[in-house]
Recover the amino acids of this structure.
């Protein structure tokens, strides 16, 4: 769709991550941020889709779904994500 931005194409629907971050080391981080009150039924599926996209895109691409503190399979807490990004 025109004007919707970057999307990761999925079987049932598309996923529109919030940010694309280019690091000084050449990594591309595709980031989906969620407040703990924003989890919905498809968060785990979107997380799996994003990680699969990054795996197929190549070693310089990373997908992260980040919640403040909530635990969702495959997602990171804010503190975990901050630490991982700092290391890149």
């Amino acid at each position: 769709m025109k004007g919707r931005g970057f999307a990761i194409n999925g079987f049932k629907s598309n996923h529109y991550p919030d940010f694309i971050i280019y690091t000084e080391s050449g990594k591309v981080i595709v980031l989906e941020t969620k407040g703990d009150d924003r989890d919905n039924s498809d968060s785990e599926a979107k997380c799996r889709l994003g990680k699969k996209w990054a795996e197929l895109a190549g070693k310089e691409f990373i997908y992260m779904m980040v919640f403040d503190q909530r635990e969702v399979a495959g997602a990171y807490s804010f503190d975990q994500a901050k630490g991982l990004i700092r290391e890149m």
